[in-house]
Each structure stands twice: as C-alpha cells, then as structure tokens.
Amino acid sequence: MSEIVLSLKGLTRSYAVGGGKSLEVLKGVDLDLRAGEVVGLIGPSGSGKSSLLHCVGLLEASEEAALTIDGEDFKNASEAARTRARLHKIGFVYQFHHLLPEFTALGNVALPQRVLKRPLKEAEAKAKALLEQLGLGERLDHQPAQLSGGEQQRVAIARALVNAPRLLLADEPTGNLDPQTSQQVFEALRDIVKSQGVAALIATHNLELASHMDRVVSLKDGKLVELSKADA
Ligand SMILES: Nc1ncnc2c1ncn2[C@@H]1O[C@H](COP(=O)(O)OP(=O)(O)OP(=O)(O)O)[C@@H](O)[C@H]1O
C-alpha cells in the first residue's frame, strides 16, 4: 500500500455565533489519505466540508487534532510552519479559478515557483510541462479571459501542482462548469494527481463525479463516514 500523506485524528471545529453561543460543526473527524488516492468529500450544504478543508489545509490552526502531512506534525504548529507547508506541501483548487487576469496561463502557473524564489526559466519549464500534461500546450500565452471555463480550471489545477505538493485540496473544483466540462476537468485532475502520486481530497455536491473517485467520505452530524461505492 502506498504511503500515508495525511493523517488526521479528532478534529473539532466550532464557530462563535453571537449571544455567547457556539456552533459545533466538526465533532471529531478522523481521516487518512494515501499517495495517489483521490477521495471525494460529500455532505449537505453547511455540513462542514469547507471547514474541514480549511483545517486540513492549515489555513486554520487546530489545537486538539492530531494532524500530520507528509510525516510532519502540525499539532500546535506555528503560523510560520503552516505558511511554509501551504507553499511546499499543499495545493489548493477552488470553485472559482482566482487566476491573475493580467498574467498568461504560463505566468499564472509559474507564480508559486517564483514565490519559492525558483529561477524564471526553471519555473516556466515546470509550468509548461504541467500545462502540456493538462492539454493546454497551445494555450500557454493566453490570459484567463481568453480561456474557456474548463481551461481556466485546468490552469488553476496546474498552478496548484507546480510546487510539487503532496496533498491537493479542492473545494467544488467543477462547481462552476457544465456537466460535460465538469467531467473532463475532473478526469484531467484525477489523471495528473495519480501521475504525480499526490493525495487529493475533493469536496463536491456532484455525486456522479464522486462515484468516479477511489473513495468517498461523507460529513454527517459533524463526523466523517466512509461510504461504500454503492451508497455514494
Ligand atoms: N466564520 C464562521 N462563523 C460562523 N459560522 C460559520 C463560519 N464559517 C462557517 N460557518 C458555519 O459552519 C457550517 C459549515 O460551513 P461550511 O462552509 O464548512 O459548510 P459546507 O459543507 O462547505 O457548505 P457548502 O456545501 O454550502 O459549501 C455552516 O453552518 C456555516 O454557517
């Protein structure tokens, strides 16, 4: 079996909602993800999918949970350690691509490498290779506005992977696309994740897409339940 990239135990998350009250969204979530595994995260609206992705993505500190990514322990990790891990170990894809409009596809994908102070040539070579792998070899010099919605999302996927993360977190990555484009973008994401040996957690409302993932986990009443393929 391939190595464990993410190990999470006992994650809780509450929000203060005024009047001294708090809303307990995650009530002890456990999750392991292995290299090369594509896991769907489903659950009703408001069940805590984005909250879970934020905690796993180290955008929020989790004090009680035991959390390791790529063997590094993030329980009580400093802000600096979390920021470093977000740059090196974790890639993010959102529902809306958030590409920089004045940059080309190549420039957008090379950017995270430049943040790591990689030389321009090296950054662009990596960006080009990923964009080609995602079928965008003819679109390198297009700006986001000159790309279709599906192409924009594939650029966002390339950007998320350019720093060679171990973990890819995606929040409704195809939520803004029509069903056919959605399927194509998902397949491109799955293929590249598998070829790079990344572990991916993909929140989605699209049960058809979820049925094409290796495993599906569902958030229910603050807990994560593993679904059999037939239930997804
Ligand atoms: N900053 C916050 N303050 C208070 N409550 C919050 C905050 N963020 C989220 N919540 C609440 O936590 C619950 C979970 O929200 P979350 O966005 O994680 O759900 P979700 O499963 O991703 O929903 P959706 O599928 O609609 O995107 C919701 O009831 C939401 O209102």
Q: Overview of this structure, please?
A:
- This protein has helices at 49-56, 79-88, 105-115, 120-133, 149-161, 179-196, 207-210; strands at residues 4-18, 21-34, 38-42, 66-69, 72-73, 90-93, 167-171, 199-203, 215-220, 223-227.
- A hairpin with a 2-residue loop joins strand 9 (215-220) and strand 10.
- The protein is of the alpha/beta class and 232 residues long.
- The chain has one domain: Rossmann fold, CATH 3.40.50.
- The longest helix has 18 residues, at 179-196.
- Bound molecules: adenosine-5'-triphosphate.
Helix-strand layout with pairing:
Layout: E1 4-18, E2 21-34, E3 38-42, H1 49-56, E4 66-69, E5 72-73, H2 79-88, E6 90-93, H3 105-115, H4 120-133, H5 149-161, E7 167-171, H6 179-196, E8 199-203, H7 207-210, E9 215-220, E10 223-227
Parallel strand pairs: 3-8, 3-9, 6-7, 7-8
Antiparallel strand pairs: 1-2, 1-4, 4-5, 9-10
Helix pairs in contact: 3-4, 3-5, 5-6
The structure holds adenosine-5'-triphosphate.
The site of adenosine-5'-triphosphate (ATP) has 12 residues, from strand 1, strand 2 and helix 1.
